[in-house]
Each structure stands twice: as structure tokens, then as C-alpha cells.
């Protein structure tokens, strides 16, 4: 019995490319499809989590929203990896800087993803799993950033289950461990990729800084988003 379409993705097998770019916002997925891809088809509207497949400079690429948080990207990335034969998922999102050396407009290439989530408990491992990106994607992203003169910082990020935390000391503790930025999805993506034997990377545009209080305007966010998209589309394979 086929497991597709799933309860969350209405695509048929073959409608999703081997590489999927995943912004959190489904409307951002629509924007990417309309402005960066050619010959686009829409493969998903279920729950308004829009998904599209098209081509970028001759390469077949898909883009689909992931929703907010670890549970949401956990569902979508699992189904893409395990049911739709996707090999690579590149999360493209925004993040808040937690490091004085990571400035607004920077692109963070998330080598690892620490988390306060209990997502790894499902694997019943005899220890603590360290969610990390796929080296080939990290290496390729670094090279594109250098080629395009895009300021990119590589390191560990925090995938937080809480946007509004009752623990007012939590951020300073993570900052003391050298965490570069906070977001809400990468750790689940990396764990799903590891379990499925697939590839994953999280690219993040720094939109604001917990350290300085600085925040980008809507216009500046769009400009920096284009830098991140240049990296993501170039490394799609």
C-alpha cells in the first residue's frame, strides 16, 4: 500500500525534486517559486503548506514551507525523505544573533544544531545525539559565499522549542557555549536526515541581534534573503 499522498503532502511520487528548499513560511515558498524558478508546478496545497517544483539554471529544484517549530518541520522533512525519495533538504530561514561577532545581514551556515527539544528521545539512544549538517552541503555553501563575497559564519545554532521562554537566564547560558544564533527547526531536520541516511543543511539570514538589539528593516531583510537564496540555489543538486 502506497504511503503517498500523505495526510500532509498531496504530491504524487515524482512531483518533488531530489533537493527541496524549505523556508518556514509557505508564502515565502510561493515567492521563491515565482521569482527564482522557471517552469513551475505546484505540488502541494494541503493545509496551505505550499510546495512547488521548477528549474533553476537547468536544475530541477523544489521549494516547500515547513511551518514553525520542530514538530512541523519534523513531519514534513520526514515525509519528504522517507516517502518522496528526496535526498537533500536545505532549510532557508531567519534567525536572531546570539554572538557579538555575528551581525545583522550575515548568513549563518549551521554546522550543528543544539536544542532544548526532546525530539531525540524517540530514538532511545544510550547518550546525547549531536545533530549536524551534511559536510558536502556545508563545504559547497562556504565556497559559494566566498565566490559571491557574501559574509557567512559557520558554527553551532540553537533550535529552540520556545519563542517566549519563562527562563530568563536560558539565552545567556547558550551564549556562554558559543551558540551563534537562535532559530526553531534545524535540529529536527538534521536528526531526520541522519536517521534516513539523507542530507540536510540550514542556512539562516540574521534579521536581528539579541546582543545589540539591532533589527533589519523589511527592505534590508529582502536584500539579505537574496544572498541566502543565491547560496541555496547554487548548491542544490
Give a description of the structure.
Belongs to the PNP/UDP phosphorylase family. It catalyses: a purine 2'-deoxy-D-ribonucleoside + phosphate = a purine nucleobase + 2-deoxy-alpha-D-ribose 1-phosphate; a purine D-ribonucleoside + phosphate = a purine nucleobase + alpha-D-ribose 1-phosphate; uridine + phosphate = alpha-D-ribose 1-phosphate + uracil. Its EC number is 2.4.2.1. By secondary structure, this protein is of the alpha/beta class. It has one domain: Nucleoside phosphorylase domain (Rossmann fold), CATH 3.40.50. Helix content is 31%, strand content 27%. It has six helices and nine strands; from the N terminus they run βαβββαββαβαβαβα. It has a five-stranded mixed β-barrel, surrounded by four helices. Strand 2 (38-44) and strand 3 (51-56) form a beta hairpin. Helix 2 runs parallel beside helix 5 and helix 3 crosses helix 6. The longest helix is centred in the last third of the chain and has 18 residues, at 218-235. The chain is globular. It starts with 18 loop residues before the first strand and ends with a helix.
